[in-house]
Design goal:
It contains nine helices and eight strands. It is an alpha/beta fold. Helix 3 packs parallel to helix 5.
Amino acid sequence: MKIGICLGFDRAEEALDAGFDYIEVGLVQALAADRLPGRGLYSANLFFPADLNLTRDPAGARRHAREAIPRAAEIGLKILVIGGGGARRAPDGTDLDEAVERFADYYAECQAIAREHGIDVAPESLQRAETNVGNDYLPLARAMAARGVPMTADSFHMLQEDGAPDWSRLESCPLHVHLGDRVRNLPDAEDPEILGFFSRLRDLGFGGGVSLECRVDVPLAEAAGRLRRMTET
């Protein structure tokens, strides 16, 4: 497994020198930047501009994908995480099962463009505080699998689902991982919920990138060391 952290460009060199393999950046920010880090670019989140919504402007969403994905490949990104709570929020009264299928079709279009350029998109489930579409990992992952689209498994969002954590919801191996505990802090290396998460990832043969997407209140070198231990245990 590779270890990374979601950080701005201004701390990229600091993070890489501290032991992270890569940084995960915001895609919109990266595409607008005049200067990018010379190393460590691998994945990006924040795929959508803040004012874009797939329901209100499907043509704009498709145009954004056609423009942004090739440029992401050009600057060296390999994986584009698609969250976009505001972008995929559906109006009240929408059949949410149908909305998941509709947005899965959009992600499939994105993946087709991405594969033409040698990269991947990897949607993630999101908590209900952020959106009303794609809140539960398993049905979203099944909709993606039916279309040949890989997933990002986000431990924080999955821990917000109802009931005790059940990592069997990871039926197939995700492409990418976001990590945070259930209050979105840097997990303790002995957190049983997170240990169970990694145990399931190893059972599935996961070997991709694990990005800290959480509050980190320790030095970056300590955070990198803790994450490395969790991935190697």
